[in-house]
């Protein structure tokens, strides 16, 4: 029974957003596809998009500009992509059911939580508001607010700072290899659930404290909570 489990003490939990808390990757794919098509790059596929999972939108458009020889500036491409994404995010984003249950379980036990994402502040706000998770996740850090995005540890370290929790007392939930690498660099434990299960053998995931190779299909709120409790006993 959960009621018999030990208190999590000083532990804090930091969530990646896209692909971890919410199934927003289809929205990012569609926004990316539309932006690239508008700049003369047709045929951007879902397989192409998967190579950008875990990378900030700003870094993604930098790569596009170099890879496809786009004339538009990085700020222009970023603004255009974010505008398209926000239009989709406000109405089409859904939270993963077991993740919602996990957030609610932690909130009931007053465990400090934060979101640390490569998305823009506006995109984070839209996703959390649209899914109702904003009621429990009031601390959020965007890669736009720190010097470097994932795989650098900056967003996770800033989230820990805002929560007032030492990095060693933070556990990160991540779906992407760059995020797992960032958690490791921040000195935090990581529950990794690969958005693309075939990428579970990526070396970055080997640094995770708990690797759920099947991704969301393997995640259960009660099991994750039990794992956290075991770690503080």
Automatic annotation (TrEMBL):
Gene Ontology MF terms: hydrolase activity
InterPro entries the record matches: HAD-like_sf (IPR036412), HAD-SF_hydro_IA (IPR006439), HAD_sf (IPR023214), PGP-like_dom2 (IPR023198)
Highest taxon in the source lineage: Bacteria
CDD domains, per database record: HAD_BPGM-like
Record's keyword terms, sorted: Hydrolase
Protein name, as recorded: Hydrolase
Lineage, top ranks: Bacteria, Bacillati, Actinomycetota, Actinomycetes, Kitasatosporales
């Amino acid at each position: 029974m959960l009621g018999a489990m030990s208190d999590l003490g000083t532990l804090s939990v930091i969530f990646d957003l896209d692909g971890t808390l919410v199934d927003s990757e289809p929205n990012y794919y569609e926004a990316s596809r539309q932006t690239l098509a508008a700049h003369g790059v047709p045929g951007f596929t879902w397989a192409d998009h998967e190579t950008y999972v875990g990378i900030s939108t700003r870094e993604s458009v930098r790569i596009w500009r170099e890879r496809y020889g786009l004339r538009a500036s990085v700020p222009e491409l970023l603004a255009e992509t974010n505008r398209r994404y926000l239009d989709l995010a406000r109405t089409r984003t859904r939270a993963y059911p077991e993740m919602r249950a996990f957030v609610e379980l932690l909130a009931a036990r007053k465990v400090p939580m934060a979101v640390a994402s490569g998305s823009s502040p506006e995109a984070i706000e839209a996703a959390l508001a649209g899914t109702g998770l904003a009621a429990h996740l009031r601390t959020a850090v965007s890669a736009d607010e720190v010097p470097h995005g994932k795989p650098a540890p900056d967003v996770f370290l800033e989230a820990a700072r805002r929560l007032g929790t030492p990095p060693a007392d933070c556990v990160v939930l991540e779906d992407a290899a760059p995020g797992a690498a960032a958690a490791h660099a921040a000195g935090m434990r990581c529950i990794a659930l690969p958005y693309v299960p075939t990428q579970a053998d990526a070396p970055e995931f080997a640094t995770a404290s708990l690797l759920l190779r099947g991704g969301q299909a393997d995640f259960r709120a009660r099991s994750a909570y039990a794992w956290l409790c075991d770690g503080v006993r």
